[in-house]
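Before the break, one more example. Copy the sequence into your notebook; we will annotate it together after we see the structure.
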Amino acid sequence: MSAREEGIEVLVARARGLVGMRVGDLARSLGLSSEGDAVRTKGTPGAILELALGATGGSSKVHDFPELGVELKTIPVDLRGVPAESTYVCTLSLADAEMQEWDDSWVRAKLSHVLFIPLVASDEEPWPARRVAAPVLWSPTPEQDAILRSDFDDVVGLIGVGRIEELTAHRGRWLQVRPKAAHGRVRTTAYGADGEHIATIPRGFYLRPRFTGAILADPSALPD
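Here is what the structure looks like once it is written out:
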C-alpha cells in the first residue's frame, strides 16, 4: 500500500470517528462558534468538518487534502437520507470556456476522489443540530465519468458559441451550472454570439441532488 493510500484510509477512519456527532458540538470542541442562522452561515458546517479532519487546501485551487488528492463535500440530507440541495464543486471560468476540455478540467480533477459526508437533520432543525452520518469515499466509474463529460461538453459548447444567457440549471443530467456570487450585483466577463464582451453573473458547477443521493446509497449508481 502506498503512502497516499494509507493517508486516505486514515482520513476515512477519522471521518467515521465523527459519525453521530452534532455539528454544533463538533464546532465547540474545536473552539468555534455555533451561532448564526442557516442563510448567513451557509458553508459553515463544511468548514467545521474540514478543520476537524485536517484539510489544508483552503480557498486555493488545490484539493481540500492536497497530498491525498481528495476533495471533501458535506451534504445536508433529511431523515430519509435525501440531499436538501445541489452540491457545489467549483467555479466555471467563462472567459475561456470554449478552450476547456473535460480530461484536464478543474471540475474533473475536483471530482476524481471525493469524500462525501452526509449531515442529517429534519427541515425544522438548525444547522448546529445536524448529525454527521457515515462517509462515502467516491471516485467516478468509467460510466459515470462519461455522463459527467457529456454534461460538461454541453455547457462549455453553449458558452463557446456565445449563448451564455441560455445556460440555466435545467441543463445537465448530473452536472449543472448555477449562479455563484455573493450577491446579484456581481458580474464577470463572457463573450456573446458575435465575440463581443458581455457582463454576466458568475457561475459554478454543481452536482444535482439526485446524483449525490444515489452515490451515498451506491457509489457506482447511474441515476436518471
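The domain at 3-217 is CATH 3.40.600.10 (ECO RV Endonuclease; Chain A). Strands lie at 71-77, 87-92, 114-120, 131-132, 136-138, 175-179, 188-191, 197-200, 203-207. Try to locate both features in your own notes.
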